[in-house]
From TrEMBL:
<keyword id="KW-0489">Methyltransferase</keyword>
<protein>
    <submittedName>
        <fullName>Class I SAM-dependent methyltransferase</fullName>
    </submittedName>
</protein>
<dbReference type="InterPro" id="IPR029063">
    <property type="entry name" value="SAM-dependent_MTases_sf"/>
</dbReference>
<keyword id="KW-0808">Transferase</keyword>
<dbReference type="GO" id="GO:0008168">
    <property type="term" value="F:methyltransferase activity"/>
</dbReference>
<dbReference type="GO" id="GO:0032259">
    <property type="term" value="P:methylation"/>
</dbReference>
<dbReference type="Pfam" id="PF13489">
    <property type="entry name" value="Methyltransf_23"/>
</dbReference>
């Protein structure tokens, strides 16, 4: 089995053809509400009411529909000037932002090479980690980038992380130690508040031919020692 480097993985057809999150809405059918069990637009409005401003980072945001819909909702409430909504994706396929909405921006960016410079009150990654090489590096940066009241919701399939020479429950124990919630049935990862998480593992490469994971879509398996 040949393990791919990050630069090779970006060119992989499995990653390039990922359809898991490209058209996902904020709420309703095929939405973040369905995946994460909360309405992002309501979370943002309530956070603004409580704290005055809100920052949302959506990693692997696809076309950015959820961000744009949430911004439109805040605009209708005359709150969009109190929000900063940012989307990040490998592919430049973002939907146009409606005129009059200035709180949404998009970056063409690999999650692995992302260098955080801000703290966020909401970070989401809906099914994006399935196609990332160094998943644990990305997670460490996400946890460290949360604000004091910030929350992270994301999907993670532990079957797509292979760690040599340690027990099968290594990551579950690491999450528990750092007060990070992981649901093995739904594959949902949740964290509230910033963390400095060092997994103590060495990333050695990724396999893009490991086949479908629990979603039924082909995914990338990451290898660590």
């Amino acid at each position: 089995m040949k393990l791919l480097t990050e630069s090779e993985l970006i060119a992989s057809p499995v990653v390039a053809n990922s359809r898991m999150n490209r058209e996902r809405n904020a709420s309703g059918v095929n939405s973040y509400e369905k995946e994460f069990k909360f309405r992002p637009e309501d979370f943002l409005a309530e956070y603004i009411q409580a704290h005055g401003h809100v920052k949302w980072l959506d990693i692997c945001c696809g076309e950015g529909k959820a961000l744009i819909q949430a911004a439109s909702h805040l605009s209708a409430l005359q709150l969009h000037d109190k929000a900063t909504l940012k989307g990040m994706d490998l592919i430049d396929g973002f939907d146009p932002v409606p005129a009059g909405i200035s709180c949404v921006s998009f970056d063409i960016q690999s999650a692995v090479t992302w260098e955080p410079t801000e703290k966020y009150d909401l970070i989401t990654c809906s099914h994006g980690l399935h196609y990332v090489g160094d998943k644990l590096k990305v997670l460490s940066r996400i946890f460290a980038s949360l604000s004091e009241n910030g929350v992270f919701y994301g999907h993670l399939d532990l079957g797509n992380i292979m760690i040599m020479a340690v027990g099968d429950d290594y990551l579950k124990r690491a999450f528990k130690k750092n007060d990070i919630q992981y649901n093995g049935r739904t594959k949902l990862l949740y964290c509230k508040g910033p963390r400095t998480v060092t997994f103590g593992l060495n990333y050695v490469g990724a396999d893009d031919k490991s086949g479908p994971n629990y979603t039924g879509q082909e995914a990338v398996t990451s290898y660590y020692t």
